[in-house]
Design the sequence.
């Protein structure tokens, strides 16, 4: 067990609890906004009714993890020797506590994850019993759910645990899951796409390094994995995967139930599945080109064809962001450094030049700029991971870092079971009529 991280986390929880209690007790009536009819019908967009300190998404600036931008986060985290990239395990500690861990604290988590990363045999049996053409996200979610029998939270709850102890087994379950997710993903990948030939874990390697090793992809894919997991980790609380995980956990469902549900949300094409959709769009486009150069004119026409067919341009638009996603920028910088002349990257860049103008002229989307998913698939493809229906699983490993930290804190701060109020259409019509009269 990683003692340093857990002790630090408990200290942070004890310091934080009075702040939450005071807000509810002394300032509970303070208004944070009002809800309009458009918001009630339109997916609660912009309704400010969730609290998290793990990350914050500013519409113009993009994500900050625990107060730090993406470049600042990568700068301060302890790095894997011989790599310019941080340990994912150190980043986990950072999301949990808000403090940049020392190398010693990081390495303790590295060792804990190593000790916990093997999958139980029954998970492997369940995966193997599923039809091989099952979507990898279904297998991933199923593998997570199957492990629910391991839940310490469920066990301790059944024994009669006090509310202020909930965070402890939630943290333990989250750690256990986090350590196993890359192994689970690599198992699914090798079973489905690599002739069912598996690679044992390497006890010398950290999470990113071992993931690349078990996937069977050479360096610098270990750095790609580290970058990818960190970039996809958290995007505050309102996105579908984070909100679903939080919602399910609010019923005191354990981390296995909650994460599996969140992963199911991530599997939707408007959310995490958009990364595979981007690749699919590009491959269809290239097939149609039949060897022609993908000029700006041809890209523009293909984008219009997609819009005119009533479909969305995958990888573009966002519910909160109103500028280019800094997660897109970080991956673009990686491409400029490592694969500047790669034709697929050049195509992504041509789309980047053309799509915002097309979407603006189309006039529907509030944000014509690219999001994280527009750039991520090309990097995977370049390093040999061409099975694009696997891309969202990679996103899922990363997203787990954020949502599991969140539900640990949810239990630490005693957040309530979620239960917003619904109204009928007639009630909305009556409210509209009353507003018109007034
Ligand atoms: N292409 C075409 N139309 C788009 C669009 C796009 N990329 N983005 C938004 N629109 C449309 C919406 O479908 C909506 O149309 P209707 O009025 O007919 O319903 C209109 O523009 C207004 O939408 P919005 O307010 O700008 O955006 P939303 O908050 O409703 O939706 C989405 C945000 C990300 C779902 C949306 O931009 C989208 O569908 N994008 C394409 C899919 C995608 O890339 N998803 C990944 C987003 C990032 C993420 O979560 N990753 O996991």
Sequence:
């Amino acid at each position: 067990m990683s003692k340093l991280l857990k002790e630090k986390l408990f200290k942070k929880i004890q310091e934080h609890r009075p702040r939450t209690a005071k807000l509810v007790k002394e300032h509970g009536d303070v208004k944070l906004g009002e809800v309009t009819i458009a918001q009630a019908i339109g997916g609660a967009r912009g309704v400010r009714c969730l609290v998290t300190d793990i990350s914050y998404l500013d519409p113009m600036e993009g994500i900050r993890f625990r107060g730090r931008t993406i470049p600042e986060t990568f700068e301060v985290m302890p790095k894997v020797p011989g790599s310019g990239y941080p340990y994912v395990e150190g980043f986990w500690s950072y999301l949990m506590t808000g403090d940049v861990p020392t190398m010693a604290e990081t390495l303790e988590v590295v060792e804990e994850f190593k000790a916990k990363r093997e999958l139980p045999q029954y998970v492997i049996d369940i995966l193997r019993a599923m039809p091989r053409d099952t979507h990898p996200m279904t297998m991933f979610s199923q593998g997570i759910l199957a492990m629910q029998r391991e839940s310490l939270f469920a066990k301790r709850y059944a024994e009669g645990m006090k509310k202020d102890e909930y965070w402890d087994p939630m943290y333990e379950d989250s750690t256990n899951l986090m350590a196993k997710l890359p192994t689970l993903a690599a198992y699914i990948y090798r079973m489905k796409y690599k002739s069912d030939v598996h690679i044992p874990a390497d006890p010398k390697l950290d999470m990113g390094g071992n993931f690349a090793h078990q996937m069977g992809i050479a360096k610098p894919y270990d750095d790609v994995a580290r970058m990818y997991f960190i970039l996809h980790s958290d995007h505050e609380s309102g996105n579908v995967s984070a909100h679903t995980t939080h919602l399910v956990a609010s019923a005191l469902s354990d981390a296995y139930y909650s994460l599996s549900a969140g992963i199911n949300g991530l599997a939707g094409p408007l959310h995490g599945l958009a990364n595979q959709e981007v690749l699919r769009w590009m491959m269809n486009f290239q097939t149609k080109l039949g060897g022609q150069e993908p000029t700006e004119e041809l890209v523009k026409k293909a984008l219009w064809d997609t819009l005119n067919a009533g479909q969305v341009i995958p990888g573009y638009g966002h519910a909160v962001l109103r500028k280019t996603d800094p997660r897109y920028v970080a991956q673009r910088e990686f491409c400029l450094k490592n694969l500047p002349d790669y034709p697929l990257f050049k195509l992504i860049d041509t789309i980047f030049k053309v799509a915002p103008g097309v979407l603006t002229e189309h006039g529907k989307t509030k944000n014509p700029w690219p999001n994280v998913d527009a750039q991520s698939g090309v990097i995977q493809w370049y390093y040999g991971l061409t099975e694009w229906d696997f891309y969202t699983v990679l996103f899922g490993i990363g997203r787990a870092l954020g949502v599991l930290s969140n539900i640990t804190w949810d239990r630490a701060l005693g957040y309530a079971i979620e239960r917003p109020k619904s109204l009928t259409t007639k009630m909305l019509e009556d409210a509209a009529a009353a507003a018109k009269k007034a």
About this structure: Residues 274-382 form a domain with the Cytochrome p450-Terp; domain 2 fold (CATH 1.10.230.10).
